[in-house]
Amino acid sequence: MSDSVVAGNCVICGHVSAMTVDPPRRTLARGTDPSDSSYSVTIVLPDVLLCGDHYHQFMSKELVVGWCDEESCRTYGAVGALSACGKPFVALKR
Known about the structure:
Blueprint: E1 3-4, E2 19-21, E3 27-30, E4 41-44, E5 48-50, H1 52-59, E6 65-68, E7 75-78, E8 90-91
Antiparallel strand pairs: 1-2, 2-5, 3-4, 6-7, 6-8
């Protein structure tokens, strides 16, 4: 995991981010046709931007960052919380 200071907004609360961390996994296989499991593409997930408070919660494992892969979202958030499209963020397993 690499930690660095970046400019942007925290994926959890929207406040100014203080740190960036690698996502729980960097790639995700996604089929171009959900009904066809024989073909998939691999997407590269962006870094996770966190404010100071959420960074400390993430590092102490109090916060689990998840991903919504719905086409209208494709963003990070707290696992179990609802994304903008109304579906819950799910944990990315390594």
